[in-house]
Amino acid sequence: MTRVDETLFEGEHYLGRPADHTDKIITRRVDLVKAIPGFCNKNMDLLEIGCGNGATLLLMAPEMRSCLGVDVFDHTAEFEKVKKEQGITNAEVILKDIENEDLEGKFDRLICFEVIEHFNDDKSVERFKRWLKPGAICAISVPNKWWIFETHGARLPLLPWNRVPFFSWLPKFIHERFANARIYTRSRIVNLMEDAGFEVLETKYIMAPMDVLKEGALKRFALKNIFNGETTSVPFKSTSIFLVCKVK
């Protein structure tokens, strides 16, 4: 994640850690990106803001000419290990605070998944344009306010469990007082991207992948009967909002 605010740290662990390479949410987002007409092109260069351990970047690398991932937290060792195992040669990661530092070069494509909510100011998305070519296409996701559980947890008084159901449904001024990260309705993230100079081409609700459930009968039942499919029209079944945007 790209959050600079170190108050998120709890001992050796910080909230909002990168998803594991095996998590369904990673492959689901990649599948959605690959389905965007013209997004994947081996003559184009991809930038990922908030690449974490590079799980998404390495899945995208075979589809692009080059891939650069940026993050403020150092997961280089894990990235290089998986990169070597997979024989990827066109992907790199660098440490950079993109809210305060610039990047070199211009890119054709950008991905940014579950990161904007961690920025010290979500209007930092305005900086994305300086690293993108005219007409560049972006795929972005943010946590969905109407998911039942608080995605990133909250610092709630007297409650030892930080993922209290329906907490994210509270009004914005209450939620952002205690939450570890912002959360978005579809209209809020669309307005944010449009105000930053992007044209929003498409939005989707990503179906909850249920990665938190242990493998077993309950998870199989849930995925087959309740959370089946990549996307959903029911906001309450979605953990994230997925947007396709274009630089105006």
Any key phrases for this structure?
248 residues, alpha/beta, Rossmann fold, 25% strand, disordered N terminus
Q: Can you tell me about this structure?
A:
By secondary structure, this protein is an alpha/beta fold. It has one domain: Vaccinia Virus protein VP39 (Rossmann fold), CATH 3.40.50.150. Helix content is 22%, strand content 25%. The chain has helices at 24-34, 55-60, 76-86, 172-178, 186-195, 217-225; strands at residues 9-10, 13-14, 45-49, 66-71, 91-95, 107-113, 132-143, 198-207, 231-232, 238-247. It has an eight-stranded mixed beta sheet, sandwiched between helices. A two-stranded antiparallel sheet has the order 1-2. The longest helix is centred in the N-terminal third of the chain and has 11 residues, at 24-34. It is globular. The two termini are 26 Å apart. The relative contact order is 0.16. The model is unreliable at 1-16 (pLDDT under 50).
Q: Residue share in helices?
A: 10-25%
First-last Cα distance: 26 Å
Tally of domains: 1
Elements, N to C (H/E): EEHEHEHEEEHHEHEE
| Radius of gyration, taken over Cα atoms and rounded to an integer in Å | 17 Å
Arrangement of strands in the largest sheet = 5-4-3-6-7-10-8-9
Using the alpha-carbon principal axes, give the shape: globular
Report low-confidence residues grouped into runs of 5 or more.
1-16
Strand content: 15-25%
Mean pLDDT: 87
Named CATH architecture: 3-Layer(aba) Sandwich
Count of strand segments? 10
Question: CATH homologous superfamily name?
Answer: Vaccinia Virus protein VP39
CATH class: Alpha Beta
Query: What structural class do the secondary elements suggest?
Result: alpha/beta
The biggest beta sheet reads:
8 strands, mixed
Number of helices: 6
CATH topology assignment: Rossmann fold
